Amino acid sequence: MTDRHPRPCPALVALVYLALLAAPAPAADRSTPPPVIPRAAWGAQPAKTALMQQHMPREIVIHHTGEKRRPQLTLQEKLRKLQKFSQNPGQVGRTPKPPWGDLPYHFYVDADGRIGEGRSLAFAGDSNTRYDTANRIQIAVEGHFDQEQPTPAQLAALDRLVAWLAVRYRVPAAKISGHSDHVAGTDCPGRGLKAHLPALRAHVAGRRP
Ligand SMILES: [Zn+2]
What we know:
Blueprint: H1 10-22, E1 36-37, H2 39-42, E2 59-64, H3 75-87, E3 90-92, E4 95-97, E5 107-109, E6 115-117, E7 136-141, H4 152-168, E8 176-178, H5 191-194, H6 197-205
Parallel strand pairs: 1-6, 2-7, 2-8, 5-7
Antiparallel strand pairs: 3-4, 5-6
The structure holds zinc ion.
Residues 63, 179, 186, 188 line the site of zinc ion (ZN).
């Protein structure tokens, strides 16, 4: 009796290895989450859940941050600043803003297309505009897309993130929208990103735009 496995032929191993290397990269698997920088890695403060409403994600809403990209800051710095702003009383334009429990967005796509984890998906987002954030996953893309264009890295990250979320939460392509689809008074997510939404919906639906 032996517990030794037969040794595969080294030439065969090399051939299989080469074939794997030469094979085209598989299309991103929509059941696999994209890389997301977790809250612990950017130094998030605890969420103030008493200020937040639980919900069940069923739709996806896309935003821009409304300020031009700042590639000189790290994603960690941006998320910490945004959380500090969010959890304190403040002002958005001329409108006073109450303290929110956490970042208003569930995900943040930065200037380089990195994705940061925002508010827990178990809770509805917050907004300084009047619309119902319940049951809607909020995604912000860094930039002011009336004044600049989203980068290819940002769009690729957004597409991958939204495709994964759509599978995970069974969001149909028709339920992927921009902020201004819900609020007449905002230009969010800006012309440059709004123009991408039909292609994003087509990507999620698995068809050509
Ligand atoms: Zn918005």
